[in-house]
Write a structure and sequence with these properties.
By secondary structure, the chain is of the alpha/beta class. The chain contains 10 helices and 7 strands. It comes from Macrococcus brunensis.
């Protein structure tokens, strides 16, 4: 289901990414990630769920080699095209996030953006990423809780309050992720493991159990990149978060 969904979305999503790469948002993303990375010398970074290759294009340079993987064949084709257009050096492969086939301790950093919520085996993926990191390696997770308002009263209250504010202030209707009015999304919500989990609490607990040390947790990190009011103007009220975790 997930692979088919992203294969169908690859071209449209790649166009969104290309527009983002030509806006000032890209430099803000670049700055945010670079500030979160603590390392000197040459860096090997794995971008899991690379999609059309936004992080390879933003981050790759002579000191930072990026390898991107994605389950979607069509996304990898888009990533190859975007990397070629950008004129940078990066490697991208079709791989499963929970079974990457890379040797242990291959990477200094692993980064993923808007991926974990889609994983059918997120615990196995976190275990795999722990295996792939070198000692002292850093995991950077950018994700969100798209469906929590269907399962938890406090999330539902937040959703309704912000949706009313956006409607009254900007005359924008907030997209109801997982709502019955969106049959494909509703089906996906019931299929995905993390839909009913309270996040990032679930992620923090799982990562610590696996052996990671949590370095930083930042709620609504996109407010620092796109701006809070700009997000609301676009009807984006999804609670997002950033986690930095270290493999001791």
């Amino acid at each position: 289901m997930i692979r088919d969904h992203w294969n169908k979305s690859a071209a449209d999503y790649s166009e969104i990414v290309r527009q983002e790469l030509t806006s000032d948002i890209s430099s803000r993303w670049q700055h945010y990630v670079q500030n979160a990375i603590h390392h000197e010398g040459t860096i090997e970074l794995l971008d899991v769920g690379t999609g059309p290759g936004i992080f390879p294009v933003l981050l790759a340079d002579e000191h930072l080699h990026v390898t991107g993987i994605d389950l979607s064949e069509d996304m990898i084709e888009q990533a190859k095209n975007n990397i070629k257009t950008a004129g940078i050096e990066a490697d991208v492969f079709v791989r499963d996030a929970a079974d990457t086939q890379f040797p242990a301790a291959s990477f200094d950093f692993i980064i993923c953006r808007n991926l974990v919520w889609t994983l059918e085996r997120p615990v196995a993926a976190y275990q795999e990423w722990h295996r792939l990191l070198k000692p002292g390696g850093q995991l950077l997770i950018f994700d969100g809780e798209w469906y929590g308002h269907h399962y938890h009263a406090d999330r539902q209250e937040r959703f309704q309050t912000l949706a009313r504010y956006v409607k009254d202030t900007y005359q924008v209707n907030v997209y109801n992720y997982g709502g019955e009015e969106h049959p494909d999304d509703h089906e996906m919500m019931h299929h995905l493991y993390l839909s009913d989990k309270k996040r990032p609490d679930w992620d923090i607990s799982t990562l610590e159990t696996i052996g990671f040390t949590i370095e930083d947790v930042h709620h609504d990190y996109l407010d620092d990149i796109t701006g809070k009011e700009e997000r609301l103007k676009q009807g984006d009220i999804t609670p997002v978060f950033f986690i930095s975790a270290i493999k001791p």
